[in-house]
Amino acid sequence: MAMTKLVRNACCAAALLSGASTFGSAAAPPELEILDTIKEQHWIGISPVSRNTIWVAGENGTVARSTDAGKSWQYFQPGPDDLQFRDIEAIDDRRAYAMSVGDGGQSRIYYTENGGNSWRLRYRGEGDSFFNCMALAPSGEAWVYGDSVGDEWRMVRSADGRNWMQVRSAVAEPPQSNEGGFASSGSCARFNNDTWMIATGNADKARVLVKGSFGIRFKVIDAPMQAGPMAGITSVWPDDEDNFYIAGGSLSEESDEQEASRLWHYSNEEFKALPEPPLSGALYSLSKVSHEGDWLLTSNPQGATALNVGSGQWYPLSDKNIWNVQCHGDISCWFVGKDGFIARLLWQPASSKEQALP
User: Fold this and answer.
1) pLDDT digits (tens, 9 = 90+) for 137-193
2) For residues 287 and 325, is the Cβ–Cβ distance under 8 A?
3) Radius of gyration over alpha carbons of the chain, in Å?
4) Measured between alpha carbons, how far apart are the two ends of the chain, in Å?
5) The whole model's pTM is what?
C-alpha cells in the first residue's frame, strides 16, 4: 500500500496565497503528510520521542509504536481489549506509559520498558475514578488528572514512575461541583519548562491549575473560557508559570455557537483572546512549536489548523476528524484521529517559501 499522500486541498492553497505577503522572512505555513500505514481505528493518544519513534494509543485496548517514522507499526494490548486508551507518555523507543479511561476500575496506568513486548499495570483507579490525562517530566515524576468526586480532587502522582498514589491535597482550593477534565486529547495536563499545568471544565468556571516543579500545591487561576456542563478548557500549553496558552470551548452537540473565544494567551496576569481558528466547535488539542517563529497547532473533529503567532493568521491543514496533535521539539509533530487518521507536519523548504513571496 502507498505510504503517504500530501494534503494540498483548495482551502490550504488559498490560505497560502492569501498569506504569502504576510510572512515576509518568516517561515511558510506547514502542510500535513498523511500516512495510510496504520490500523484503521480511533487513535487519541500520541507521543513522539524522536524524529523516527512515535507511540500512539486508542480504542480496543490498543497501543502502537513506530521506530521508522511511520513506515511500519507494531501493535500491543497492555490489558483487556475493551479499554479506551486516551493518553500515552513515552520516554524513548522502549519505555512508555499508557493511560486508559472509564469508571468501574477502567481508569488505569500501564508501563512497558521493553518496547511494548510486555506491560505492567502500575495503577488502577478506584471504582468512581475517571482519569482524563497525564503528564510526565524528564525526572520521571508523573501526574494524572481525573474528574473530581464530591468535594475531593482525584489526582494521582508518582515521584519515580514506580510508586503511584492518590493525592488529596495537591490543589490550593477545593474543586467546584462536577469539576473535571476532558479526555479528548490527553493534553489537559502538561509539563513544560519546569511547569505543571492542568485544565478544568464542566463547572461554573473554567480554571487553570499551575505548579512549578518544586512547588507544593497547584495554584488556581480563573479563566474566561466558556464554562458549564460539557464546556471548559480542553488543552493547555505552559511556556512557564506566568505565560501559557489554553484552548477549549463547549463540547455539547446542542451548542452550535461558542459564547466566548476558544483560544487564549495568559501573560502579565491577564488573559488575551487570540484570533479564532477556522474550525467550528470546541478545540480538542493544542501544541506550540517554534520554527522560524512561533506557531500554535490545534485540532478537533472538524480538522486541524496552524496559527502563525507573529502574524496572527491561521492556515488550514486538514478537514479530517483529528483529535490530537503532539510535537517533539520542531522536528516531529504528529496528528491522530478517527478512522486510522495519522499525519505528520512538514515544513516547506526555503525554495517553496521564496516562490510564494511576491
Assistant:
1) 999 999 999 999 999 999 999 999 999 999 988 999 999 999 999 999 999 999 999
2) yes
3) 19
4) 39
5) 0.90
pLDDT at 4 over 60: no
One-letter amino acid for residue 349 of the chain: P
Q: Taking Cα atoms as reference points, which of 76, 89, 80 lies closest to residue 118?
A: 76
15 φ, ψ to 5°?
-65, -40
Per-residue cell: 356 = 510564494
Which of 147, 144, 146 is closest to 161 using CA atoms? Answer: 144
Distance CA 270, CA 272 (A): 6
Distance of CA 232 to the CA centre of its chain: 15
Identify residue 206 by its one-letter amino acid code. Answer: A
Q: Could you give the C-alpha distances from 313 to 21, 230, 278, 297, 306, in angstroms and in order? A: 12, 29, 10, 12, 8
Largest CA distance in the chain: 61
In a 13 Å sphere around the CA of 317, the CA atoms on its Cβ side amount to 35
- For 19-39, the pLDDT digits (tens) are 333 334 456 899 999 999 999
Buried-exposed string 248-265: b where 16+ CB fall within 10 A, e elsewhere: bbbbeeebeebebbbbbb
Q: For residues 315-338, b (16+ Cβ closer than 10 Å) or e, as one string?
A: bbbbbbbbbbbbbbeeebbbbbbb
148-154 contacts: CB < 8 A, separation 24 or more? 148/175, 148/176, 148/178, 148/179, 148/180, 151/175, 154/125, 154/126, 154/129, 154/130
C-alpha 172, offset from chain centre: 25
Residue 122 contacts residue 183 (beta carbons within 8 Å): no
- d(C-alpha 142, C-alpha 160), whole Å: 8
Cell 502502537: give the residue.
64
Whole-number Å distance between alpha carbons of 91 and 100: 18
